[in-house]
Amino acid sequence: MTKLEQYKEQYANQNIQFIVIGFDGTIVESDQTFLKLNKGDYIYDVHPFFVSYVSVLESSEETITYNCVHLDYLQKQYITDVKMIKKDNHILLLIYDFTDHYLSYQKLAQARNESIINSELVVLKNIELEERERFKNAFIRNFSHELRNPLTSIISITSVIEGTDLTGEQKQMVHFLKESNANLKLLLDDIMSISLIASGKLQLRDKVFSLFGLLQLIEFTYKTKAAQKSIDFVLNYDKKVPEFVEGDRLRLFQVLTNLCDNAFKYSKEGAVTLNVKLNQKRANKVNLRFSVSDTGIGIPQEKVDAIFESFTQLDDFGKKQGSGLGLSIVKGLLELMDAKIRVESIYGKGSEFYFDVTLKFPLDLASRPISKYTFKSSGSSKKIDERKYKLLMVEDDEQIQTVLFKALMDTNLFYIDLVNDGAMVFEQVANNTYDIILMDVDLPNVPGDHLTQLIRDFPFKNIKNIPIIGITANAFEENINDYLNKGMNAVVTKPFELTELVETVLKLLKK
Amino acid sequence: MQKSKKIVILGHFGVGKTSLIRRFVKDSFSDNYKVTIGVHITKKVVELSPDESISLIIWDLEGTDDIRMIRESYLLGTHGVVFVFDVSRPSTFQNINEDLQIVTSKTKETPVMVVGNKVDLIILSELQSLLEENNIQANFLTSAKTGDSVNGMFTQLASLLNDQA
Prior knowledge:
The structure holds 2 protein chains of 2 kinds. By secondary structure, chain A is an alpha/beta fold. Chain A has 13 helices and 17 strands.
């Protein structure tokens, strides 16, 4: 044998085993490359795979190849390709040991499959989270809607009671009742805000507004509150801060009042201070730092991150106040403004919450002198002129009917017709002349927004132009915009103060 | 040679085919996912009655998301098929009826058992609606992890194949 033949035998054949078996599965002959086989044994007793030799007998094919077959033999695993070749009176088995090759393929397959499965699981997890979010938001909507109706009745009835002859003790009780109502309304609004922020549906509405006006309103509000609590409220603002800026006034107001409310909540003495400082002014943009500091209980270091999560409150000597949503709303709103809330706090001494926000700075208003903000007194229910107005009230809730009726009659300005079913409105409007309609949205049979559309499509001007005020417990902005788009002139959301509603009616009648 | 029947376990990768076999043969389970390449063959003798048993030669085939890619040689001489899907991963059952048609065309008259595995990961009401929504007629709903219905499924198949013999 030449050297080459020796090497070929040594290396080429070491991974191939040749076995000859009879048609009954008896081993006729075999080398011992890796399976140690005995002549006369049955091949199917060596490994269950070899039962498949029968397939060769049944097949019309002369050769059958099985790729990547795992053969566990004497506690060792071989990964092989097996050829079964049918000869005249026996079967030749060729077993190729490709263990190393297949193990490297196995690693690739493992990585590929794991990656695909993980991607699928991430997608499924996201779908699940989105579904949960949708469910949560739907729940909050329904919850908010269902609470707003009874709360409207409570607030309205409280106002009616307040207007009657009361003893001093009764007046105090009504005062507490009004405070509780206001807190409940704030809580509902907070829950709705957090739901809107979380669902990404809250959009900022940037407009030019007087920042000084906003700050002075806050100063007025919190100086009053501070006087009641025997602590101080201080507003400091940098004179370089422009009077007019462009941003979402409502949401900035919400952020600052949430921070101030929070500061008051945890301060028993000392002062709450709102500072507004100019960081930078460039072209038509201005970067401002707002900070609210207090002399309250402070925040333990380990709780600093948690306070911005929903429903988290510091334990103020065992007392908990509010919903625990305020700072979470602040965080969410500031993120929408590309700003970040930060806090520095010394436990037991007080906290400072601050953020830097960039607002547009309208150049054409830059040189306007600082205006003095004056608080307009709320409109009274004085007669606009001597004649009375004809008002159609469309409302199916009896409690709300009662309080609205009383509040409107007390103004001595209206003749009122009442309809409690959406299906009856059109006929009522067609057969009468009304100056204004108060329209509940959720009516039996035909909803108020749909009725509004029908009225707006009416061919006669005296009907199609009747001012319509929508009343609804659907307090989400998208709902309100929808009702306005359908032709309502104004929308009052439940719960409302009777004075607010009467003012809205009068404002529309003045037009 | 004892009476033996070859069954092949098919389905997409990661649906738990190997785990089902391990539960049935060794009564054990591992959370670690190890990809099967090619085919693993195991034997298990199933006692159908005190004086009757059958040897199941179980072919655990490499999972694939394209059932047409299965090597024809693996299916030669098959007596029964178990098609497994993962109830928690829609991609493994979204086209199940087309997949079953392909399997049937390859295995001819061979009985096919459709098995939804990993039922421990999903609540019963969701499971029922996903079966209805996807028009899946599963013969067994199993959990290799808890062992739910695993023995029952293999034993029923063994019994069916024994009756056919």
